[in-house]
């Protein structure tokens, strides 16, 4: 049943993003930002962790999880180090994923050649 819950929760999150673009007339960048902020707000209210426990990858793979990670790290470090922890906590939790994206993107750019303009 975990796979079914993950499928439905992840699908609902993606459907919300698609509806924001189709009916809200938001650009992909605005939709991305909205979903990240929504994940951050849900984590700040203590609602995202139960969603992760319920849906697993259905809640950790979509972009809302990035907002959750930022807020979760900031709140955890704020308890330990105060105001400075808010700033360092966000980067501590998400740094490995962002670093991997930069490194693999660079390697991909070195290996593959872009196609020319198709007129």
Oligomeric nature of the chains:
single chain
- Please state the structural category: mainly alpha
pLDDT averaged residue by residue: 86
Query: Poorly predicted ranges (pLDDT <50, ≥5 residues)?
Result: none
**What's the number of structural domains?**
1
What distance separates the N and C termini?
Answer: 49 Å
| Biggest sheet details | none
**What gross morphology would you assign?**
globular
- The SSE order reads HHHHHH
The count of helical stretches stands at 6
Please report which band the strand proportion falls in: under 5%, 5-15%, 15-25%, 25-35%, 35-45% or over 45%: under 5%
Estimate the helix proportion, in percent.
over 70%
- Topology, number of strands: 0
Give me the Rg, rounded.
Answer: 17 Å
Keywords: Membrane, Transmembrane, Transmembrane helix
Pfam family, one: SpoVAC_SpoVAEB
Protein name: Stage V sporulation protein AE
InterPro entries: Spore_V_AE, SpoVA
Question: How does this structure look, described?
Answer:
This is Stage V sporulation protein AE. The chain crosses the membrane at residues 93-112. Keywords: Membrane, Transmembrane, Transmembrane helix. Pfam families: SpoVAC_SpoVAEB. The chain has six helices and no strands. It is mainly α. The longest helix has 29 residues, at 83-111. Helices cover 82% and strands 0% of the residues. It has one domain. Helix 1 (2-22) packs across helix 2 (28-44). It is globular and about 50 Å long. The N and C termini lie far apart (49 Å). It has helices at 2-22, 28-44, 48-55, 57-60, 64-81, 83-111.
